[in-house]
Design a protein that fits this description.
By secondary structure, chain A is mainly alpha-helical. Helices cover about 45% and strands about 5% of the residues of chain A. The chains are: A mainly alpha, B mainly beta.
Chain lengths: ~260, ~130
Amino acid sequence: MRRFGAALGAIAIAASAFAGEITPSDRRSGYEFMSRETRAMQDDDTANPGMLWVLEGGTLWEKKTGAAGRACADCHGDPRASMKGVAARYPAFDAAIGRPISLEQRINRCRIDRQQASALAYESRELLALTAFVARQSRGLPIDVTIDARTHPFLDAGRATFHRRQGQLNLACAQCHDDNWGRQLAGNVIPQAHPTGYPLYRLEWQSLGSLQRRLRNCLVGIRAEPYDYGANELVDLELYLMWRARGMTMDAPAVRP
Amino acid sequence: MASALINVPARAKRGEIIEIKTLISHVMETGFRRTQLGAVIPRDIIRRFVCTYNGTEVFRAELHPAIAANPFIVFSTVAVESGTLVFSWTGDHGFSATETAAISVGGPEMAPHTPPRSEPSRETRDGPR
């Protein structure tokens, strides 16, 4: 009898978790939850501190590096054309390793394979600068990750992570971001968790940071052991979040409180 | 690597009040924080920001440890003549950065009116510009 009850409970929880998915017309970017002042900061390219990284990324784009002595620009040319919409399509499937990889991982693959340089550390200034520079070229474009037979299992894995209760607080991402968005968590409004503007400048960090840094922050917040940077779980979760925000407008580098 | 973003209107009318925005990349480490092992992280801040307009100082700010990373400083000045604005930031550990911006001043010739550079009278300050 007890086992039967537990099974019923599990079904009820699963059903309520999936029923809570936000309908496309109700989706709102984190931008819409911000104060007027913070929005103004993001909208003005000379007030948006994220643009400092974009500026630095532009310098790195032109700089020859590694044993191959090649710059990003030597292969990709004008970033306004070659990188347009690229960030809006990541994580994307990488045939070589047979799973989706994040934009940061793609940049590092390019460094290792084409430039014969060392991989940049996650959250290092250089990697953030290059990612911000590439992401900037997608500003205003709709998020459009490719979901097909190859990527579908990873999307499902990401969705499962989003709905899985974790940590000492036993919370799932969905409990805050699907079921309780718009309400307060301490003094802050809970946003819907749409990754439209990464890498973004968080005033709390006083720095630019990647989506994975944000995800790890949330995991620590629910007292869970955060996955390592570049872990498959985080990339799958990124893929799910991008799919969940499909069609929404990219605004990288964004500013968030 | 120090990088800065400057926003100065490229053109202005003589006597017009122009807004200048500056943003510079800097950690602004307060000197009050400690590492996990208890060692003090040495202070590393920008201490002074100066803007000169054709050699004349038009704005100066002193910065302190409570100021956030990547200081964003906005101020205004009066467009008097075409020329160059020079922005310089100096700070701890020999930090020094300089940026310049050109401005062209012209447009409809106004009455020969040199905006007061020092100690404007109350009427001038409150009167319409």
